[in-house]
Amino acid sequence: MANKKAILNQLADYFAGKGSMMTPSEYKAAGDAPIRYMVAKRPFGSWARMQSMVQKNFPEQWAKANPVVAATPAPKAEEKVATKTAKAAPKKAEKK
Question: Is residue 90 part of a domain?
């Protein structure tokens, strides 16, 4: 467990410094990664699991790595009033 915590701490600090959580391909391509990808992923089983554990165990670094972007509301489209111009066609009688 201590090994996982140490790896999580390194990764959390790294991602906080970068300002974003990286995808596995981005992390592999980074030349300044603190540890190799497989060493970072192996104790957790998957990259997504590692990210969720960083979120739970290091919330301050997680907040720095995932800045909240204020969502601006989309402009409302003009509501169109549906008008009925044609009447429904009469039902056909069933043949027996």
Answer: no
Total domains in the fold of the chain: 1
Report the amino acid identity of residue 70: A
Residues 9-22 have pLDDT tens digits of: 999 999 999 888 88
**Domain interval for residue 46:** 2-65
- Asked if residue 49 has pLDDT above 90, the reply is yes
In a domain, 11, yes or no: yes
Where b means 16+ CB within 10 Å and e means fewer, 35-64 reads: eeeeebbebbeebeebbebbbeebeebbeb
Report the alpha-carbon distance of residue 88 to residue 2 in Å, rounded. 72
Percent of the chain, pLDDT > 90? 39
CB 15 within 8 A of CB 21: yes
Q: Is the pTM of this model over 0.85?
A: no
Tell me how long the chain is: 96
